[in-house]
């Protein structure tokens, strides 16, 4: 699913940045993509995806 239509950033791209590249915050996502630099409507959704991925990773490590 596209999160940022203006720049073509998908939820899969965000997940890849977090899991494979070690990005840990929105600043890192913005550094790697142009997410949020046009209209900004995607930022809330991207933050939620980032938090979900981090929570899932923490649960996975705990078990």
Number of helices: 3
Radius of gyration: 11 Å
Strand share of the residues?
5-15%
Strand tally, please?
A: 2
Q: Tell me roughly what share of residues is in helical segments.
A: 55-70%
The shape is elongated
Q: Give the strand line-up of the largest sheet.
A: 1-2
Low-confidence stretches: none
Report the sheet with the most strands, covering strand number, pairing sense and barrel closure.
2 strands, antiparallel
**Amino-to-carboxy terminus distance:** 29 Å
Mean pLDDT: 94
Report the order of strands and helices.
EEHHH
- Look at the helices and sheets and give the structural class: mainly alpha
Structure description:
The protein has 63 residues and is mainly alpha-helical. The protein contains 3 helices and 2 strands; from the N terminus they run ββααα. The chain has helices spanning 11-19, 26-32, 43-62, and strands at residues 2-4, 9-10. A two-stranded antiparallel ribbon has the order 1-2. The longest helix is centred in the C-terminal third of the chain and has 20 residues, at 43-62. The radius of gyration is 11 Å and the shape is elongated. It starts with a strand and ends with a helix. The model has no long low-confidence stretch (mean pLDDT 94).
Entry keywords:
63 residues; elongated; 3 helices; mainly alpha
How would you summarize this macromolecular structure in one to three sentences?
With 63 residues, the protein is mainly alpha-helical.
Topology readout:
Layout: E1 2-4, E2 9-10, H1 11-19, H2 26-32, H3 43-62
Antiparallel strand pairs: 1-2
